[in-house]
Write a structure and sequence with these properties.
By secondary structure, this protein is mainly alpha-helical. Helices cover 54% and strands 9% of the residues. The longest helix has 19 residues.
Length: 163
């Protein structure tokens, strides 16, 4: 069993392939489930969620340049932040322990958004651009959000269900 999954390969292959009857309903096995918009693979590696998230973000980023001439730079930056950041922040606590290659895929979207906002070349070093925008790289962003959540829990600033 690897550190990035909750099940062995043998266990994953022993999932029932035929539908199981529960009362009058037939329940079929699935390799991925969705809960609150988060796609969870049967091995909990988040591969499907990361792929769908990256694909959706790049789709949004491809549409945004078409409106650049119609709005001010400030409004354009705000639109990028409003469309991209909530997707990243929504499930970031579930993404905090991902392997490096998954983080890099997600980081590529954040980098593309920063380049789009600053009208930089994709060959420019990204760190000065992120620093100028006051955007954290993903691992630091995840850590920050988790620290904020822990702080709120410790100071009773969250709903009772989170205490």
């Amino acid at each position: 069993m690897s550190h990035e999954s909750c099940s062995t390969t043998r266990k994953l292959h022993s999932r029932p392939s035929a539908a199981v009857g529960v009362g009058a309903d037939l329940i079929t096995s699935s390799s991925t489930v969705r809960n609150l918009g988060i796609a969870i693979d049967s091995d909990v590696a988040m591969q499907t969620h990361v792929s769908k998230t990256v694909s959706a973000w790049f789709a949004v980023l491809r549409q945004l340049p078409s409106i650049r001439r119609s709005v001010s730079e400030t409004v354009f930056k705000l639109l990028v932040v409003l469309f991209v950041m909530p997707c990243l922040d929504y499930s970031n606590t579930t993404l905090a322990g991902l392997p490096l290659y998954q983080h890099q895929r997600l980081q590529s979207v954040l980098n593309a958004a920063a380049i789009l906002v600053r009208r930089s070349s994709r060959y420019d070093h990204i760190m000065p651009i992120l620093r100028d925008l006051h955007w954290l790289k993903l691992p630091e962003r995840f850590d920050f959000k988790i620290c904020v959540l822990v702080y709120r829990c410790l100071h009773d600033l969250v709903p009772l269900c989170m205490n």
